[in-house]
Amino acid sequence: MNNKKQSTFLFLLATIAWMLFVISVSIAVPLVCRPFYYAHITVMDMPQKTGLTELEIREAFDEMMDFCVFGEEFGTGVLPWSESGKAHFEDCAFLFRLDFAAVGVSIVILMICLVLEKRGRMPARPLGRGPKFWGGILLGAVFLLIAGVAAIDFDQAFVTFHHLFFPGKDNWIFYPSMDGIILILPEEFFRNCAILIVGVMVLLCVMLMVLDKRERRGA
After folding, report:
1. Cα–Cα distance, 137 to 15 (Å, whole number)
2. Which domain holds residue 81?
3. Each residue of 143-177: pLDDT tens digit?
């Protein structure tokens, strides 16, 4: 390995790609893992609170997510919806698909980096650590800090999130009489989604650092 040329550019490219991969995959988990939502139906006693059956709740959630993820016709089951509410989910659909695209882009970049390594062009290793270590530790530290701040006041963090990702819009503020889907999407569910995302992210960051340590031993 010492005879192979080390590249600072390749180090930066791989580090950014690993960070993008971890972020996008972590966000994708609650988007594709519907059993995570289904578990909340019983735990949060949604049928009792909403007067809907568990099947009606699932169908409403599935129709909304099918629209956001797969581009199917918009609907919220037996629940009412407004054009304003639909417009918000159109914005959500764009962000969801952007995240899925980020997963793909990061994988392609990492594959390119791997090919370059096979051809003898290695990423630099500042302080003896490679892209996996630096990507994992930097991303983990940043998001643990963000998670800590959000945990202090999740309500404010929730509002700030919507202002950042839906600038100039207020159609994310739902009224049950117009957009009944909000009845089965309580804030506690979104809080748990955030916890899941951070948890997956931290796990992946730790895995990257462990992999880097093994690579260092095998070098």
Report:
1. 11
2. 5-218
3. 888 888 888 888 888 899 999 999 999 999 999 99
